[in-house]
Design brief:
The complex is a heterodimer of chains A (about 110) and B (about 210). By secondary structure, chain A is mostly helical. In chain A, about 75% of the residues lie in helices and about 0% in strands. Chain A has three helices and no strands. Chain A has helices at about 10-30, 30-55, 65-95. In chain A, about 55% of the residues are buried. Chain B contains six helices and no strands. Chain B has helices at about 5-30, 30-50, 55-80, 95-115, 130-140, 145-165. In chain B, helix 1 runs antiparallel to helix 2 (about 30-50) and helix 2 (about 30-50) runs antiparallel to helix 3 (about 55-80). Chain B is extended and about 75 Å long. The N and C termini of chain B lie far apart (about 70 Å). The relative contact order of chain B is 0.05. The chains are: A mainly alpha (about 110), B mainly alpha (about 210).
Chain lengths: ~110, ~210
């Protein structure tokens, strides 16, 4: 392994930064669509971790890639259902402001 | 991947820079349409990183599913719910932002610490390169067969659920003439489940 080779930790650090940006966006977004986009960012960060481990530690059996494909599938289902819920919520409440969806707030 | 190492390094730096800047733009830009397009850029650079990691199949799946389906779905949702209303100001927003920045930086420090101090078993077994596609297919139809089938059922359930949730209620008969209105999309009068708060729709009287 030469000096200029990309270490595994570089991918992990990039994924960690992407995950933290996603968490920040999830907490602070007031637009409900942006909340869904932040969730996509977090799912992608996890996927990047999976792919890095699959390439560096499990090069023969690429199980990380299999899991990444499953995560992509679940993320697509989540996006479809989430946006449908958002659409129905918008028809009922006439807003996309997360602060006004407070029916279940104690 | 048979690129030179310096080329790989430059590609990695460019892609991860575009990834992180785009992600910051997604959460920080005030216009949500720009955020959606930047999300497409983020997903594309993620596909580039997958290519650097010898995973051409997952990179193609990423481009097809994320950029082609999820991002377009998000854009359609923005078009459907794009209401240009200023968000009502609320107290404690700045405090919440600062606190969440502190929490996220703490989480980042924890994750980076774990990533850097864990003794990974490097170098692992040599990568099989482009044969990964064959290996993924073997996994899907032998030891990961049950999750694979469950994923197809999940997609079907999500599709039906999304259709049921997002469907508009359509009258079966025209109110005036009594004739069947099949394609006319005569919508039932929309009655919100809850009275909207904050007087955002002053025309609807409160039902109390």
């Amino acid at each position: 392994m030469t000096v200029t080779d990309i270490p595994l930790q570089a991918y992990l650090v990039v994924a960690a930064m992407l995950f933290c940006i996603g968490v920040w966006g999830l907490i602070n977004s007031r637009n409900a669509v942006r909340v869904l986009m932040s969730i996509e960012l977090m799912l992608n960060a996890v996927n990047l971790n999976m792919m890095a481990f699959s390439s560096y530690l499990d090069g023969a059996q690429v199980r990380g890639q299999v899991f990444a494909v499953f995560i992509i599938t679940v993320a697509a289902a989540e996006a479809a259902v989430g946006l449908a819920i958002l659409l129905s919520l918008y028809r009922n409440r006439d807003t996309v402001d997360m602060e006004q969806f407070n029916l279940l707030r104690w | 991947m048979s690129l030179a190492l310096s080329t790989q390094l430059v590609c990695f730096l460019l892609l991860s820079g575009a990834l992180l800047l785009g992600a910051l733009g997604v959460v920080l830009l005030p216009n949500v349409v720009y955020s959606a397009f930047l999300l497409g850029g983020v997903l594309l650079s993620m596909a580039g990183l997958y290519l650097l990691l010898n995973a051409s199949f997952v990179a193609a799946a990423q481009v097809l599913v994320y950029v082609g389906a999820v991002n377009v779905l998000i854009l359609f949702a923005i078009m459907l719910v794009n209401k240009r209303q200023p968000m009502e100001p609320m107290g404690g927003l700045l405090l919440r932002r600062l606190l969440s920045v502190v929490v996220c930086l703490g989480l980042l420090a924890l994750l980076v610490e774990v990533a850097l101090t864990t003794p990974w078993e490097l170098p692992g077994p040599p990568s099989i390169g482009e044969e990964a596609l064959i290996r993924i297919g073997e996994h899907f139809f032998t030891d990961y067969l049950l999750p694979f089938e469950v994923a197809s059922v999940l997609l079907l359930m999500a599709m039906i659920g999304a259709i049921v949730l997002a469907r508009r209620d359509v009258l079966a008969r025209d109110v005036v003439t009594g004739e069947p209105a099949d394609q006319a999309l005569l919508e039932r009068q929309r009655t919100p489940v809850l009275p909207s708060q904050g007087g955002s729709s002053p025309s609807a009287p409160s039902p109390q």
